[in-house]
C-alpha cells in the first residue's frame, strides 16, 4: 500500500497521541514507584530500629510486610520499564514511518531532490534518533549495536544504511554512505543506492564490499564493551560529506547521545591527522583490513 | 522677409538706447554652482567667467528696465509710440517713425539725446506722434511699465538676432520679435502657439527623473553620502537649466541619423522659445529646461553636456575650495557615469512616470522629526567594534532587525520591499488592505502555523536558513577585517587573519601559501570572516576598486567540516549587503571549475555586464579560470532576501485561500449543450466571473499606423546606403537583371504601395523590404558595394522597426 504523505502524517499523528498518553502514564507510574520506595525505606528503618527487636511476632510481621512491599515495588518498576519501552518504540515507529515515506517517495519517481544541506541535516538527525539499546540485566549488546559487528549470515534489509565500497575512478575505491535496495541471493550481491542523489545512483556490489551500519546505539554507561576503544583504527563518515575515511578514535562518547571524537588520517596536516572531529556512533564502523584505503 | 528687414532697420535706427545686453551670447554660460542647492557641504559658486558675464547681463537688463520704469510718463509714451498703432481712423500705421530729417547726420544713439515731441509727424503715416499714444494715456502705470519692459526685450531680441549667425536661430529670434511686437501693439500678453506645442513636452521631466535616480540608486547610502548625491543632482540640474545647447546645424556634424536631427531641431527651438530667450526677456513666459523636457532631450545632449561639464570642472578646479573639489572631481564623474547608465538603459525605473520610492530612512527621519536619529525599519548596520581602537580595520556586521520580534520584523520586511505594492494600495484599487496583510503576517509568523501535511518531512528550507538561525543565536558572527600597515591592528584581528589564512590554504590547495599570505595580509584586501566559537571557519577575501565601482573576490572558502550548512550563501549575502552600504554594486571574480557552481548559486554569471575598460588592468587574471560577474540591486537586503520572498509567497497563498473561501459556491452546471447549443462565451458560465475570470485582452497586433510606416520608409530612403534601392532596376542598364529576379522590389514602389494603403499589416511591409535586400544579395556577389549596402540598410531598417515597436524579436 502506498504510503502517501497524508497517510504517513496520519500514522505519525496516531503514534504521537499514543506517546502523549504514555508520557502521562509513565509520570503516574513513576510517582507510584516513588511512593513504593518511600514505603520500603520507612519499613526498613523501623525494622532496623532496636526498640522493636524484642517483639519477635512484630518482627516477622514486619519482614513479611517488607517482602510484600518489595514485591509490589518490583512490579511497579517492571511496569514503568514496560511503559518506557513502549514510549521508545513509538518513537522508533515514527522514525520508521518517516524513513519508509522517504523511500517510497524516492521510488515513486518524484525525485524531489533533497538539497545537499538538507541531506546533511537528515543524516545527522538519523544518527541522533538511532534507537538506543537498553539491555536487560546481564544481557550483552546484540549484533549491530554500537561497535558489535553483524553476524556472519546477516543480510541487510532494504532501506538499511550501509557503507559501500564503490569504484570512483580507474584505480580508486571509496567507501560511501548508501542504502540497500535489495539483496540478490543468487549472486550474493547487494543492490545499493548512493545516499547522495546527485551522484551515480545504483551500484551492485558483492557482500564483502557492503558493511551495514549499526542499527542501535550503545550506552557507554552500560555497554562500554560495545564501543570502539580509544586508539582503535576505524572508518568514520567525514563531517558534512557522505564518504567514510580512516580515522583513529580519540575519545569515546560520554553518554548515549554523544558522538565519538576521531582524528582523520590527512596528509595535508603536519602530523598526518586532522584536528578532532565529532562523528556519531551510527557512522563509525570497524575497518575492513586491506580495503578502503582512502585518503 | 524684406518687409521685416525694413521694419527692423527702422527700430534699430529709432532705438535710442544703448544696447545693454552686448554679451548675452551663445557661449557656454553654464556654471557648476550648487549655491541654490541648499546644500550642506557644497562650496561657494565657482567663479566662472561665463556665469559672471551671464549674471551681469541679466543684471544689466534688469537695471535697464528699472531705468526705463523711472522715466517721466511722457518719455515713456514717446518710447511706446514707436511700437503703437496710429489711432487716426482708417490709418494702418502700426508704429510711429522718426521723420527722416531727424537722423540725417547719423546721430550717435545715446541716452541723453532728446526724444521727439508729441507734435512730431510720423514718417510713415504723417500723423502726429500724439495720435500713436492716445490709447495709452489712461493706462495704469503698471501696464505701461509692462509694455515698456516688452519694448526693452524686443530691442534685446533684435540685437541678439543681428549677432546670430545660425540661420535657424535667427528665425526663432525673429519669430519671438514679432510676437512681442504684436503684444505691445495689441497691449496683450505674449502667447506662443503653433506646432511647437506647450510645455511640458515630455513626462516625466528631467528633474523628476534625476530625483528618481537619486532615490533609486542611493537610497541605501548613509545620510551624509546621500546628501552628497542629492547635492550633485541639484548641481547637475542647475547646470542643465543654464546650459546653452548647440545649434542643430552644429549637431548635424556629429549625428548622422536624420530623424534624431529633426527631433533635436524641434526640441532646440522649444528650448530657445520657452527657456533660453525668456531667461533674459522676462516678458515671455519662462520655463526651466529640466522641468519641461524629458528623456529625449536628455539622451540627445547628455554626452556632450557631461564632457563639457567635466572639462569645465578641470579648468576650474584650482579656484574651488578643497571640499568642493572633492565633490566635483571625485564624486561627480561617478555620479554622471551611473546616471548615464540609467538614461540610456531601455528600462530604467527612473523614467517610470509613476515611480515612487520610499525615501531613505534618514531622509524620512529628517522629515518626520529633526531630532530623532532612530531609524525605523533598518535591516542592517555596521558598528565599529567598540572595545578596541581598531575601528578602521574591523567592522562588525549585525542584523539590525534580529532583536525585534518576529511579527514586527515581518511587517517591516513586507513594507520595506513593497514600495510598488503600497502605491497600488494608496490608489484605492481593489488591492488587499494593509490590515489583511498584517493579519496574515501574524498568522504565518505563529510558530504553530503548519504548512500542510508534509511539514513533518519538510526538507526544503532556504539554503541560508540554518546559518541565519545560528547568527541569531550568536553562535556565529561576521566581521570585515583587514591588515593595516599604517595604523595599529589589534591582536584579535591578526589572529583571525592567520586563521583565515589557514582556512584558505587548506581549502584551496592549488594556491601556494605564500600567495595567500600576500593577499590576505595586504592592507588593500579585506576579508569578510565567519567566526564560530571565536575562530574563523570561513571567509571571503576581496579587494574593492572604489574608482572602478567594483570589488574583486579573491578567495572564498569554508572549512571542510563546516560545509553545506549554508555558511557560504550567508557569507556572500553579508558581503553583498556590506557592499551596497558602501555603494559598490558589482562583484567580479575568477572562478575555478569547482567554484563556478557556487558562484552561479550566488547570482554570478559568466556574462560580464561591466565594460571591459572598468576592470581590465585592475583585477588579477588567473589562467584557466572563468571570469564571473554579479550585479547587486541596492533595493534588496540580501541577508533577508529568502525570508522576504517566503513571506510574500505565504501571503499570496493565504490570499488565494481567502479568495477561494469567499467565492466558493456550487453551481448546478450547464445543461444548454444537451439542448443543442454548440458553444457559449465563457462569461456566460455562472461563477466564472466571480472566480476571477476575465476576458483575455484582444490580440495585440493592430494594423500598423501608416504614419509610422511612412516614417520608417522615409528614414530608410534617406540612409546613406539606400541609393541602390531607391527606384526599380533599369533593364536598359542591367539587361539580365529580370532574368534572375522574378519579384523585384524597390523603395519607390514601396512608397506607392504605402500610399495605396496596401500595407494593412506590418508583415507585408517587412516582406517587401526584406525582398529588396534578398534580391540584391541574390544578384550581386558579397564583395560588391551593393551587397554591403543591402546588409547595412537591412540592419538599419530593423533598428528603425524596433524603435517604433514593430519588430517582434
UniProtKB/TrEMBL annotation, chain A:
Domain SGF29 C-terminal: 152-293
GO CC list: ATAC complex; nucleus; SAGA complex
Alphabetic keyword roster: Coiled coil, Nucleus, Transcription, Transcription regulation
Coiled coil regions, renumbered to chain: none
Annotated localization: Nucleus
InterPro entries (UniProt xref): SGF29 (IPR037802), SGF29_tudor-like_dom (IPR010750), Tudor_SGF29_rpt1 (IPR047288), Tudor_SGF29_rpt2 (IPR047287)
Pfam family, one: SGF29_Tudor
The name this protein goes by in its record: SGF29 C-terminal domain-containing protein
Organism encoding this protein: Bombyx mori
UniProtKB/TrEMBL annotation, chain B:
Biased composition (Low complexity): 30-40
Record GO cellular component, one term: ATAC complex
Molecular function per GO: histone H3K9 acetyltransferase activity
SMART domains, A to Z: BROMO
Region named Disordered: 1-64, 408-429
Name of a matching Pfam family: PCAF_N
EC primary class: transferase
Reactions the enzyme catalyzes: L-lysyl-[histone] + acetyl-CoA = N(6)-acetyl-L-lysyl-[histone] + CoA + H(+)
Annotated Bromo domain residues: 717-787
Cellular compartment(s): Cytoplasm, Cytoskeleton, Microtubule organizing center, Centrosome; Nucleus
Listed EC numbers: 2.3.1.48
Composition bias, Polar residues: 13-23, 50-64
PROSITE patterns given in the database record: BROMODOMAIN_1, BROMODOMAIN_2, GNAT
An example Gene Ontology biological process: positive regulation of transcription by RNA polymerase II
Family: Belongs to the acetyltransferase family. GCN5 subfamily.
Protein name in UniProt: histone acetyltransferase
Organism whose genome encodes this protein: Bombyx mandarina (Wild silk moth)
Amino acid at each position: 500500500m502506498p504510503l502517501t504523505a497524508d497517510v504517513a502524517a496520519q500514522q505519525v499523528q496516531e503514534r504521537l497521541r499514543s506517546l502523549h498518553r504514555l508520557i502521562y502514564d509513565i509520570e503516574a507510574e513513576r510517582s507510584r514507584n516513588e511512593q513504593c520506595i518511600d514505603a520500603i525505606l520507612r519499613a526498613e528503618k523501623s525494622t532496623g530500629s532496636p526498640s522493636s527487636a524484642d517483639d519477635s511476632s512484630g518482627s516477622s510481621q514486619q519482614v513479611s510486610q517488607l517482602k510484600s512491599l518489595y514485591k509490589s515495588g518490583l512490579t511497579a518498576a517492571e511496569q514503568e520499564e514496560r511503559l518506557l519501552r513502549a514510549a521508545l518504540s513509538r518513537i522508533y515507529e515514527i522514525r520508521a514511518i518517516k524513513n519508509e515515506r522517504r523511500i517510497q517517495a524516492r521510488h515513486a519517481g518524484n525525485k524531489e531532490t533533497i538539497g545537499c544541506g538538507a541531506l546533511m541535516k537528515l543524516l545527522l538527525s538519523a544518527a541522533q534518533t538511532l534507537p538506543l539499546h537498553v539491555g536487560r540485566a546481564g544481557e550483552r549488546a546484540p549484533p549491530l549495536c554500537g561497535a558489535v559487528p553483524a553476524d556472519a549470515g546477516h543480510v541487510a534489509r532494504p532501506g538499511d544504511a550501509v557503507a559501500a565500497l564503490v569504484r570512483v575512478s580507474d584505480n580508486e575505491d571509496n567507501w560511501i554512505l548508501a542504502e540497500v535496495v535489495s539483496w540478490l541471493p543468487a549472486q550474493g550481491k547487494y543492490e545499493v543506492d548512493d545516499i547522495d542523489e546527485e551522484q551515480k545512483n545504483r551500484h551492485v556490489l558483492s557482500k564483502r564490499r557492503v558493511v551495514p551500519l549499526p542499527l542501535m546505539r550503545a550506552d557507554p554507561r552500560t555497554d562500554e564493551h560495545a564501543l570502539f576503544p580509544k586508539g582503535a583504527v576505524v572508518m568514520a563518515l567525514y563531517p558534512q560529506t557522505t564518504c567514510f575515511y580512516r580515522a583513529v578514535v580519540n575519545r569515546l562518547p560520554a553518554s548515549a547521545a554523544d558522538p565519538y571524537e576521531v582524528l582523520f588520517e590527512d596528509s595535508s596536516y603536519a602530523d598526518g591527522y586532522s584536528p578532532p572531529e565529532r562523528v556519531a556512533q551510527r557512522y563509525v564502523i570497524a575497518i575492513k583490513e586491506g580495503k578502503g584505503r582512502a585518503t | 522677409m524684406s518687409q521685416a528687414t525694413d521694419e527692423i532697420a527702422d527700430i534699430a535706427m529709432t532705438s535710442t538706447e544703448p544696447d545693454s545686453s552686448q554679451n548675452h551670447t551663445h557661449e557656454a554660460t553654464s556654471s557648476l554652482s550648487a549655491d541654490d542647492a541648499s546644500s550642506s557641504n557644497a562650496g561657494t559658486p565657482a567663479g566662472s567667467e561665463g556665469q559672471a558675464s551671464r549674471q551681469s547681463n541679466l543684471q544689466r537688463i534688469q537695471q535697464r528696465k528699472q531705468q526705463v520704469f523711472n522715466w517721466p510718463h511722457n518719455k515713456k509714451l514717446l518710447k511706446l509710440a514707436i511700437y503703437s498703432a496710429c489711432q487716426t481712423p482708417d490709418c494702418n500705421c502700426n508704429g510711429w517713425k522718426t521723420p527722416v530729417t531727424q537722423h540725417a547726420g547719423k546721430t550717435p544713439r545715446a541716452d541723453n539725446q532728446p526724444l521727439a515731441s508729441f507734435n512730431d509727424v510720423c514718417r510713415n503715416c504723417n500723423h502726429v506722434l500724439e495720435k500713436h499714444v492716445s490709447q495709452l494715456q489712461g493706462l495704469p502705470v503698471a501696464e505701461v511699465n509692462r509694455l515698456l519692459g516688452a519694448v526693452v526685450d524686443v530691442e534685446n531680441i533684435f540685437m541678439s538676432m543681428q549677432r546670430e549667425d545660425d540661420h535657424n536661430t535667427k528665425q526663432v529670434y525673429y519669430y519671438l520679435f514679432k510676437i512681442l511686437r504684436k503684444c505691445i501693439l495689441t497691449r496683450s500678453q505674449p502667447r506662443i502657439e503653433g506646432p511647437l506645442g506647450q510645455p511640458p513636452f515630455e513626462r516625466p521631466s528631467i528633474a523628476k527623473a534625476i530625483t528618481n535616480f537619486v532615490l533609486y540608486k542611493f537610497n541605501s547610502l548613509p545620510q551624509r553620502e546621500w546628501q552628497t548625491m542629492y547635492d550633485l543632482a541639484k548641481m547637475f540640474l542647475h547646470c542643465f537649466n543654464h546650459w546653452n545647447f548647440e545649434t542643430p546645424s552644429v549637431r548635424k556634424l556629429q549625428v548622422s541619423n536624420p530623424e534624431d536631427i529633426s527631433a533635436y531641431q524641434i526640441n532646440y527651438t522649444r528650448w530657445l522659445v520657452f527657456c533660453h530667450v525668456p531667461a533674459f526677456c522676462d516678458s515671455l513666459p519662462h520655463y526651466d529646461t529640466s522641468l519641461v523636457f524629458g528623456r529625449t532631450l536628455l539622451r540627445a545632449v547628455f554626452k556632450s553636456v557631461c564632457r563639457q561639464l567635466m572639462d569645465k570642472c578641470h579648468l576650474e578646479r584650482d579656484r574651488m575650495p578643497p571640499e568642493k573639489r572633492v565633490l566635483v572631481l571625485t564624486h561627480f564623474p561617478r555620479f554622471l557615469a551611473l546616471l548615464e547608465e540609467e538614461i540610456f538603459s531601455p528600462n530604467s525605473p527612473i523614467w517610470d512616470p509613476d515611480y515612487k520610492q520610499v525615501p531613505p530612512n534618514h531622509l524620512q527621519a529628517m522629515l518626520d522629526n529633526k531630532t530623532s536619529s532612530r531609524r525605523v525599519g533598518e535591516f542592517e548596520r555596521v558598528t565599529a567594534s567598540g572595545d578596541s581602537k581598531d575601528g578602521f580595520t574591523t567592522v562588525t556586521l549585525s542584523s539590525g532587525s534580529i532583536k525585534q520580534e518576529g511579527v514586527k520584523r515581518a511587517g517591516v520586511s513586507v513594507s520595506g520591499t513593497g514600495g510598488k505594492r503600497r502605491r497600488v494600495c494608496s490608489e484605492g484599487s481593489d488591492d488587499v488592505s494593509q490590515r489583511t496583510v498584517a493579519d496574515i503576517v501574524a498568522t504565518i509568523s505563529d510558530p504553530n502555523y503548519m504548512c500542510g501535511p508534509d511539514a513533518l518531512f519538510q526538507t526544503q528550507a532556504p539554503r541560508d536558513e540554518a546559518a541565519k538561525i545560528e547568527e541569531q543565536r550568536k553562535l556565529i558572527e561576521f566581521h570585515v577585517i583587514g591588515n593595516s600597515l599604517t595604523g595599529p591592528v589589534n591582536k584579535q584581528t591578526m589572529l583571525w587573519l592567520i586563521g583565515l589564512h589557514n582556512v584558505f590554504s587548506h581549502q584551496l590547495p592549488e594556491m601556494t601559501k605564500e600567495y595567500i599570505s600576500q593577499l590576505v595580509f595586504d592592507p588593500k584586501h579585506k576579508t569578510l570572516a565567519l567566526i564560530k566559537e571565536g575562530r574563523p571557519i570561513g571567509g571571503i577575501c576581496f579587494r574593492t576598486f572604489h574608482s572602478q565601482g567594483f570589488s574583486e573576490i579573491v578567495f572564498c572558502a569554508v572549512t571542510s567540516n563546516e560545509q553545506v550548512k549554508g555558511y557560504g550563501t550567508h557569507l556572500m549575502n553579508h558581503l553583498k549587503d556590506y557592499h551596497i552600504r558602501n555603494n559598490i554594486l558589482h562583484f567580479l571574480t575568477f572562478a575555478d571549475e569547482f567554484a563556478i557552481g557556487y558562484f552561479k548559486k550566488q547570482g554570478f554569471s559568466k556574462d560580464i555586464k561591466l565594460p571591459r575598460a572598468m576592470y581590465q588592468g585592475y583585477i588579477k587574471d588567473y589562467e584557466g579560470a572563468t571570469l564571473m560577474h554579479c550585479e547587486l540591486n541596492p533595493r534588496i537586503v540580501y541577508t533577508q532576501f529568502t525570508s522576504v520572498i517566503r513571506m510574500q509567497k505565504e501571503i499570496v497563498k493565504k490570499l488565494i485561500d481567502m479568495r477561494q473561501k469567499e467565492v466558493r459556491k456550487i453551481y448546478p452546471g450547464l445543461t444548454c449543450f444537451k439542448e443543442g447549443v454548440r458553444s457559449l462565451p465563457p462569461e456566460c458560465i455562472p461563477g466564472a466571473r466571480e472566480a476571477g475570470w476575465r476576458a483575455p485582452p484582444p490580440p495585440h497586433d493592430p494594423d500598423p499606423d501608416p504614419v509610422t510606416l511612412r516614417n520608417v520608409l522615409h528614414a530608410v530612403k534617406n540612409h546613406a546606403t539606400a541609393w541602390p534601392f531607391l527606384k526599380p532596376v533599369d533593364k536598359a542598364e542591367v539587361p539580365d537583371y529580370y532574368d534572375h529576379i522574378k519579384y523585384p522590389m524597390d523603395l519607390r514602389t514601396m512608397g506607392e504601395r504605402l500610399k495605396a494603403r496596401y500595407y494593412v499589416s506590418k508583415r507585408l511591409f517587412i516582406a517587401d523590404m526584406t525582398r529588396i535586400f534578398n534580391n540584391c544579395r541574390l544578384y550581386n556577389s558579397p564583395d560588391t558595394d551593393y551587397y554591403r549596402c543591402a546588409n547595412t540598410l537591412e540592419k538599419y531598417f530593423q533598428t528603425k522597426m524596433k524603435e517604433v515597436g514593430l519588430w517582434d524579436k
